[in-house]
Structures
1.
Amino acid sequence: MIHNVVNGVYSHVNVLDPTLSRPARARPHVLPVTALDAPSPDAAALAVLIGHVANLRDRTAYAALFKYFAPRVKAYLRRAGLEGAEAEEVTQDVMLALWRKAEHFNPARAAAATWVFAIARNARIDHARRRRGASLPAMPELEEPDHSPSAETQTLTAEREAQLRAALRALSPEQQQIVQLSFFSETPHTAIASTLNLPLGTVKSRIRLGLARLRAALEGEP
Amino acid sequence: MIRHHPSAGTLLAHAAGTLAPGHALVLAAHLQSCAHCRAEQARLEATGGVLLDDLAPEPLAAGAFAAVLARLDEPATPPPAPPRQADLHLPPALRLPSALRGASIGRWLWIGPGVRYSTVRLPWAPEENVMLLRVAGGRRVLRHSHGGVELTQVLWGGFYDHTGHYGPGDIGETDESVEHQPVAGPEGCLCLAALAGGLRLPWLPRLLGG
Ligand SMILES: [Zn+2]
């Protein structure tokens, strides 16, 4: 099932970049210039690139993914409070995980950025944990339950991402900040209270309101 | 049919990665049983994806890509050995949620008439207070309040308290403002619970080794 979807996406590959359809062989560790000079890939192209990494172990595709996602993952980790060197190190771990887990990416379930977000989030949880107790074993990966995606989750693909982006933009600046801090801050409630100068007691209800607005925007309500 | 879901704030914290590990485990068990919350979780993670996508990129140090490339062929660390799980003599039809797979599970300990618990220890977060709770039909758990949020996922049977009836797949979420006294349904109840801040009972922390 996963492979069918990925293969379906593959049909666009030569449009994207003909060099990407070459099967991967043991390549020297040289930056493939073509991939790095390409304009920012869109969501569908990113999904194709992950498919290439999964099925062909294609380092050219990987380089393009690295170029796009690594600086964003680093920005995310910096916002979560990691110092420069830590953020750099954990970003490298996230990018390595992306290479290793590419075969688990299911474009019918999640957009590329969503999948990378989940990997980065887990790495951040793990980092916080190791800071408390260095010798603790890693948090086990939960295998995704093998339910075929429901009708609702199936629509959460690249196109759905655009809808979500529009919904986020439709929020008031304050609500956008609340949603951002909820996702990025290690201690969201205190961060929201201090950034927006709100009493801590009202933060919960503001978050709820922000989420409700987001959902209403997604469902096309006024 | 599942009637009780986690609060929006708890789902958000889980998607954002800020939920305490014990609560995250119980929530993972709920997600395995609840398509509604799985869809909501997917929506929240997609929101995280869009936010990540929209972040102003921060350049990496020179050589970062080369450093990662050099690690691509390293073997991944093997998964840890499976933890000890006591035989809880559960009904054959009952399988513990696979979210519990990495946790060690202690044997049943008696904590009151018709009430037994088993400590669930997370090797990756041993300070977390997670337990399986088995309550015989009609028996009640001692009245208690909480130092923080308590999440209780019903695995089998059911219970009720002043907030309603909880059946298989339902999750109960209570915070420090709630004092409750759950009573098991006629068939009894098996739950997975995570506590924050501990139960407010004078003697239980001792029993729980806390
Ligand atoms: Zn639910």
Note: The longest strand of chain B covers residues 183-195.
2.
Amino acid sequence: MNNPASPASPTSPINLADQMKSGLDAPICLTWELTYACNLQCVHCLSSSGRRDPRELTTTEAEAVIDEMARMQVFYVNIGGGEPTIRPDFWHLVDYAVERGVGVKFSTNGSRIDAVVARRLSESDYIDVQISIDGADAETHDSIRGEGSFDTAITAMENLRDAGFNDFKISVVMTRHNIDQLDEFAALAERYRAQLRLTRFRPAGRGAETWHELHPSSDQQVELYHWLLDRPDVLTGDSFFHLSALGEPLPGLNLCGAGRVVCLIDPVGDVYACPFVLHSDYRAGNVRDPGGFASIWRQSDLFAEMRQPQSAGACATCGQFDACQGGCMAAKFFTGIALDGPDPECVKGLGEDLIAAKSDQSDRSGQPATPASGPDHSRPTPVKLGARRSA
Amino acid sequence: MKFDADSAYRLHPKVAIRPEPFGALAYHYDNRRLNFLRSPELVAIIESLRDHDSVRHAFRAAGIDSRRWPAFETALASLAESEVLVPA
Ligand code: SF4
Ligand code: SF4
């Protein structure tokens, strides 16, 4: 979300963050992965995309989901994937949503944004586009996404700019290799009249295997924190709130929105609390179930549980808990840290210590220290999901 | 433009409001910003603005104690600043 700063309250004693924690009538940030099909194979891909799933929602089913969003007054839906534009009915579904007052922001690698499409997109105020890049130059970017993909993204940006589409998003997942290019990313955004959006690299999907090598070092994180404090206009989807423990809080709500303000619908209609934890433990239901998406959001046991006050656990004695809230559940989950433990990137280094201790342990026992992420959709047979965690 | 409680304001046509337990959320499709309307009273005032030729008339009609007007004016001024409200 862009602007959690709110008008001064005239009357109300409520604490907004507490209100968010106990849930909203509809999500603010609803991610919908339309398909896992993709034409690229990025090493950090959060959804392990590749092939299309035969059980994907049909066009009619997808329309029904949009109808429901419209009834719930969802302001906009973030469509991703995979590469969502690969679905043959993608543009139809975008129009269908916009006609019903549900705005669409979609993430793309840019491959289908030619001049004609860019012009069409720029005509609607209800459509926003996010081009994902991983480096500010071809070398850095293509090493992750494959040769030629940087040029593809740049061509899409040129097309959007030439069509007069202002403030589209250039989105970058921050890794050890691109975090030193912050100023270059900002310059790129300016050149294409776009808004820069930086998000945190989470150890989910294919990223789980590469996280330990690719996530930013603690020095880089401190640098990022100061860079962001100086640039409140750079969007972050509130994803770096664990860094607020370094001092002055970053702009945003500074809380984990999973199941409270955030959720995800996957291509087969499964609804998860967090877009980064596609694991059976965090699956609240399926939009095909009776009652559909609205009843999952408002009544599912999982979401109800997540809206209860959470214990501060191992972070309780840390003076920064109000700012950092113990960090990101997804990051903890996939690095094998208890959910009431510190974030793996805890600015006090507590997470790193735990991970080091874990990996010692698993070396000795031969047992994996972390839960398996969701199936890798680039492989023909789905991998079985991990068992429910104990406790 | 400075906020003037003696003149009329309207909800921007590109703003959608969704009621929530604490008040409402307002989303602006032009600048893609989300605003929090932190009390049901404030939401009711905003919705009644279209029926009044000044903000203060709307306060009076809603029976809001004049000692609380300044707080409401601050909230509305900030919404005008972010173009959720526009001069009528
Ligand atoms: S678990 Fe992490 S990624 Fe998911 S909603 Fe919470 S903070 Fe965001
Ligand atoms: S100990 Fe917990 S609350 Fe404190 S900084 Fe680390 S993760 Fe945040």
Note: Residues A 245, 315, 318, 320-321, 324, 326-327, 342-343, 346-348, 350 surround iron/sulfur cluster (ligand 2) (CB under 6 Å).
